[in-house]
Amino acid sequence: MYQLALLYLACVLAGFGLANLPTSAVITPEIANFFEVIGGISMAVFAIAVLYLGVKTLFRK
Length: 61
Description:
The chain is mainly α and 61 residues long. Helices cover 79% and strands 0% of the residues.
């Protein structure tokens, strides 16, 4: 379960990276907005998953 929590935390960081993607010649503002939405959703989903694992571990004892 420890490895699963680390994987979820890595996914939260990846979502943060997507949400803060700078625009360039290849990445237009429309694509950057799409990645910002996807990054925000992934941060929320995996943060809830990490909280769920923490609460489940806390109340197991």
